[in-house]
Amino acid sequence: MTTRITIRKPDDWHLHVRDGAMLKAVMPFTARQFGRAILMPNLVPPVVTTKDAIAYRERVMAALPAGSTFKPLMTCYLTDETDPDDVEHGFKEGVFTAVKLYPAHATTYSAAGVTDHRKIMPVLERMEKIGMPFLMHGEDVDPEVDIFDREAMFIERYLSKWTRQFPALRFTLEHLSSKEGADFVRSTAPQVGGTITPYHLVLTRTDWLGWGLKPYMYCMPVIKTAKDRAALRKAATSGEACYFLGTDSAPHPVAKKLSVNGIPGVFNAPVAIETYAKVFEEEGALDKLEDFASVNGPRHYRLSVNETTITLEKSPWTPPQEIKVEGPDEKALIYRGGETIEWKVVSS
Ligand code: DOR
Ligand code: ZN
Predict the structure, then answer these.
(1) Mean local confidence (pLDDT), 60-74
(2) How many domains does the chain have?
(3) What is the sign, positive or negative, of the torsion defined by CA atoms of 329, 334, 337, 343?
(4) What gap in Å lies between CA 183 and CA 91, rounded to an integer?
(5) Is residue 85 among the annotated active site residues?
(6) Hey, whose CA ends up nearest to atom 10 of ligand 1?
(7) How far does the centroid of ligand 2 lie from the alpha carbon of residue 117, in Å?
(8) Pocket lining: 249 vs ligand 1, CB cutoff 6 Å
(9) Who wins on pLDDT, 304 or 2?
(10) Which among 174, 277, 278, 330 would be 20 to 30 A from 105, CA to CA?
(11) 135 and 114 in contact (C-beta within 8 Å)?
(12) Residue 145 clears pLDDT 90, i.e. is over it
């Protein structure tokens, strides 16, 4: 039995670190495990211009532990009004790595997102021309569409058309949550890649809703069936280049998670690589962890892989249930907090 594994340092291709006190509290957990991360722009207000992204990057850098070599990669929050010239300028200046689509009202802090897909065509054309990646929260929020079908319907109604309309544009379908999503990515690779979260690999909707309502398992896209989870586990552990690590770690103040109108998001950064290691071990695929976590992502984004390594050992530990955030009574729940975590990062 393998009890120790060393891999190239992983990157997180989908991460929320927020701002202010929350940013300060959560940033060290990611910096500890990952070389780089794509930072999502759904702040309040969102990161919509190059200027916003430069300012946000500075706040992120200030929240890093002293001596950290972690590199944040910034994204542009797409709106109906996004200016293709500013997007191009930000990309060419090395400020933006990608543009992120949030369909309006699809998820947390997406109210300023895209309301009419026809309005974003000039931006997509420009991105295709300059080789800039397009990241998508791939859900169709038409109220007629059942919440469990939102991902499949987004593919059917939008993404399958865009891949033909923009053959040279590189897409990432974020936080794959369904068999349809995993299958679509495989069928359109390498044009489309897909990130997979630790919690979509571990949980089913029965875990979330079957034994009492677990608000801290509530996320968008929602956790689906055991069949979907099996397809995602097979995809992630296959080593195929189109699937890569994106935690979607998304911390919230506990009061927002436990409210009568609870907010979606799972804060998993404190146990992220450890949870992926558990899944890969269960699937007999620890030898594929490095491809998924550290190689496939940089290839998709045409960046170099990290040269340093991290080592994990089979050495059980228990994270706290929550972390303290500066401010009166502020705290955030940790995914798998209080549980026994099998793998531990022993050097990074
Ligand atoms: O569950 C989610 N939380 N899904 C998202 O797409 C956004 C995220 C957040 O920002 O909290
Ligand atoms: Zn996200």
Answers:
(1) 98
(2) 1
(3) negative
(4) 30
(5) no
(6) 108
(7) 20
(8) no
(9) 304
(10) 330
(11) no
(12) yes
Tell me how far the alpha carbon of residue 248 lies from the centroid of ligand 1, in angstroms. 7
Question: Which residues crowd ion ligand 2, with CB under 5 Å?
Answer: 248
Closest Cα to atom 3 of ligand 1? 265
Is the pLDDT at 329 greater than 80? The verdict is no
Prior bond of 190 cis (ω within 30°): yes
What long-range pairs does 182-190 form, CB within 8 A, spacing at least 24? 182/231, 182/232, 182/234, 182/235, 182/243, 183/231, 184/155, 184/159, 184/160, 185/235, 185/242, 185/243, 186/235, 186/240, 186/242, 188/163, 189/240, 189/241, 189/242, 190/241, 190/242, 190/300
Question: Does the pLDDT at position 181 exceed 90?
Answer: yes
Question: What is the Cα Rg of the chain in Å?
Answer: 19
Ligand 1 proximity of 42 Cβ (cutoff 6 Å): yes
* Closest ligand (CA of 38): 2
CB 198 within 8 A of CB 339: no
State mean pLDDT over 237-255.
97
Residue with CA nearest ligand 1 atom 11: 265
Least distant ligand from the CA of 139 = 1
Q: Of all atoms in ligand 1, which is nearest to the CA of residue 16?
A: 10
Start-to-end CA distance of the chain, whole Å, equals 22
Any idea which residue has 């009890």 for tokens? Answer: 3
Q: Compute, in angstroms, the gap from residue 106 CA to the centroid of ligand 1.
A: 9
Q: What pTM did the predictor assign?
A: 0.98
Ligand nearest to the CA of 257: 1
Name the closest-CA residue to atom 4, ligand 1: 220
CATH number of the domain within which 42 lies: 3.20.20.140
Q: Which atom of ligand 1 is nearest to the CA of 263?
A: 11
- The boundaries of the domain holding residue 110 are 4-347
In degrees and rounded to multiples of 5, residue 214 shows phi and psi of -105, 95
Q: Is the CB of 159 under 6 A from ligand 1?
A: no
